[in-house]
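Fold this sequence, please.
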Amino acid sequence: MAASSSSSSSLFLLLLLFVFVVSATSRHLGHSALHSYFRTHRTGLPPRSTYGPIKTNGRNYSFVCDSRRFADLGLRVTDFAYCNKNLSYEQRVKSLVGSLSLEEKVGQISDQARGVQRIGLPPYSWWSEALHGVSYVGHATYFGDIVPAATSFPTVIVSAASFNESLWKSIGQVVSTEARAMHNLGHAGLTFWSPNINVVRDPRWGRILETPGEDPFLVGKYAANFVRGLQDVEGHEVAANPDSRPLKVSSCCKHYAAYDVDNWFGIDRYHFDARVAAQDMVETFLLPFEMCVKEGDVSSVMCSYNRVNGIPACADPKLLSQTLRDDWKLHGYIVSDCDSLEVMHHGHKWLGDTPEAAVSQTLRAGLDLDCGDYYSNFTESAVAQGIVRESYIDTALKNLFTVLMRLGFFDGMPKYESLAEDDICTKDNIELAADAARQGIVLLKNDHNILPLCKDKYKKLALVGPHTNATEAMIGNYEGTPCRYVSPLDAFSAEGKVEYDLGCTVWCWEKEAHQRAKEIAARADATIIFAGISLEVEAESRDRDDLFIPYSQSNFITQVTEASKGPVILVIFSAGGLDISSIARDNAKVSAILWAGYPGAEGGRAIADVVYGRYNPGGRLPITWFESEYTKLLPMTSMPLRPIDELGYPGRTYKFFDGQTVYPFGYGLSYTQFNYTLKSVPSSVVVKLEPLQLCLPLTYKPNASLEEEHAGAACQSVNVADTACNHEINFEVEVANTGKFDGNHVVIVYSKPPAGVAGAPIKQVAAFRRVFVPAGASSSVKFSIDACKSLSIVEKTAYKVLPRGQHTIVVGDDEPTVSFPVKVDFN
């Protein structure tokens, strides 16, 4: 017994040592050493050639219609027309659907499709995620054996803060390359339910970290670029028949639509009915999805849990079949958020439906795929009851199988078949993740130009606060296993002499731990406080009650600030805005504030690069940071964007709120200064109308002079959808860097509608561009914006109209800012 016990102890110690070495390696080794380590230590694993996404009778294959695979099943591939490459996808899919019995059809319309062995159709798991890197969320993806990790990018809200379309597309391209490699190795599917493109309507929402912000145009541009990065196969970006355009992987824009309440004082997404005016629906909630479909050519859209004006989103034919397919021409499939049909049945209790009736409602509305088990459990009985036509199932299968055809699931895609473990966690991929974090960091305060920090002057640093040694906290949710972590402590320790102490966790209940943090701050040349919130405070299914940093942590920050001998730099981790007015923004002892969001696995390195000036911050806030008092003025469940005067509710987002903020949308400082000079500015746009074209009235504010001026016009506005508008507003902005640091600068262009139009936005983003300008140099940025798209507004009738009158183009926020008028008239 003693010998056995000793042996067990030794094995246990060796196991602990192995875990420690792997953990230390993944956190501290460079990329090449990390990859070498896993290559060397994959002992006992079979060679890569034995891995594959499709397992058949103990063997692995790369695609369905492999003749050897059919032979393994005792079948001949030539007997099945769906494997005949000489036929069109449409013909092949028709043959495949037609060869299935009702029971077999039903087995393919849930997220874990069962397959049909008798015809060689394998099972397929539809659910993978890739919000900011391949995630382990979903049935189809896992990490382990030959794929221990994947590149972890910053959360979406941080990448959005870069205002850089090419970056978003590049991230998508890297993620899809790693996803394809994982698929080849049997570790992932080909259908990834990302990105989340819900607009941030309320600052309390728990899922802000997953989204690109509060402006629907910005969100739509992010969606289109990220989706293109994920899906596009080089040389096949467009096709005469979009249903045959090949896909690198399939992307999915979610959650459609008006979804942005998770769990607020007991009101949750499984029961919430979003009461949305048609005006807000068109202007805010649908626009990003329209751009995702029309500009991104996304191959999937996911409907949400909530009801919209009484109807569950996944059962609304107007939202699904009419809008997505008929109006926007979606080429792909529509999937439910997971267990949405059960939510519809048990949560919403909509129409007192039976499970079969819920299946009937969603299939008729145009829902192709059920992430859940209602389709698989209740569709056959729904057909037997006569409330579901089998043709509805055929249509769903056509949409699903066509996407799989485009992905090469049936035929393979040689362009990507060589991708493997060496294409995951590459040096370039990790560097892009670090660069994305650098580009998204926002400088909120920099008194006396304390940043960039001078190493010669501030040799001894105190690092304190709950995120000082952040690892998992940096990567947010819908995350994968990262290639490595570089925490703030790792990064700053490599720079010079540091003392550190967390002081407390995010909730900061450990008051006895504050003392050491104050002591090291008191003897350091400078103090960096890594503070903020985490997924313990804001997350899926967890909305916030207020906009403050947890009270005890605020006290901790104040105490450390007061105790510090040298300047204090506050680094904020959060997705949503925080009211840090008193503890930091207006506190003279806090010299600088950086917002890092949740910056991904390379976050510590990115923060250090910014602090020491190796990178000049150029990020801008993609959301408004409201004062906490704002949340007392209106409930989270009030959906209108415009102010509700009779209830005293303020407007939402920068487009409709004109009060005091902590920091406004688009805010962000630099280590240098920029000036704008306008060039080649247009003065008017004249739109020629057709002889029988209808004009639409505008709603004006109660102002007699304005009302008379505009009411007298023969045509106050035109419906953009009925107007042949090909007018471009072309102008040029010279951006001059007048400071001492090279820097990236985001130029944001807004349009402002004619004065006096009731309910119009204060301003709205029309374009943006990120540009690099060396110190002392200038760069000319040319803009060409579509007059009908960029100057249009959505009237309360929900028509998107181009108003007659004087519009204003504003370039920039606060300083620098320039503007010019553009008069719109109709001929």
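Residues 279 and 798 are 4 Å apart (CA to CA). The two ends are 99 Å apart (CA to CA).
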